[in-house]
Amino acid sequence: MMVDADILREKVIACLQTIFDPEIPVSIYELGLIYRVDILPINNVQITMTLTAPGCPAAQSLPVEVDQKVRAIDGINDVHVAVTWDPKWDKSMMSETAQLELGWL
Questions:
Q1: Which of 37, 53, 35 has the alpha carbon at shortest distance from 45?
Q2: What b/e sequence results for 59-68 when a residue is b if at least 16 CB atoms lie within 10 Å of its CB, and e otherwise?
Q3: Which of 21, 34, 40, 70 has the fewest CB atoms inside 10 Å of its own CB, making it the most exposed?
Q4: What is the CA radius of gyration of the chain?
Q5: Is 90 exceeded by the pLDDT of residue 67?
Q6: 44 pairs with which residues across the strands?
Q7: 25 and 100 in contact (C-beta within 8 Å)?
Q8: What pLDDT sits at residue 2?
Q9: Residue 98 region by backbone torsions, left for phi larger than 0, else alpha for psi between -120 and 50, else beta
Q10: pTM for the full model?
Q11: What's the topology of domain 5-101?
Q12: Going by C-beta distance under 8 Å and a sequence separation of 6 or more, which residues neighbour residue 5?
């Protein structure tokens, strides 16, 4: 079953908004840890993300959680999660909502 790429992308983003950094009580999407969400042919999903720091305790678990939760979305064929350190994450990448929630604004 082929799903419209825009609808599928919205579903992926909604899913990413339910995944939280274990040290900061904000979703990884609002934290700005998700750099790209690409819907590729036959409903394959490529997610490019980063972590708050290379030594982040969630470095092993967070990409796996992203893969598993996105893979469970109806209509997804395959998922590839790539972790990058370029550009390096900093607080300015957070959404205004996340900065408000954490009292950083």
A1: 37
A2: eeebbeebbe
A3: 40
A4: 14
A5: yes
A6: 40, 78
A7: no
A8: 58
A9: alpha
A10: 0.91
A11: GMP Synthetase; Chain A, domain 3 (3.30.300)
A12: 39
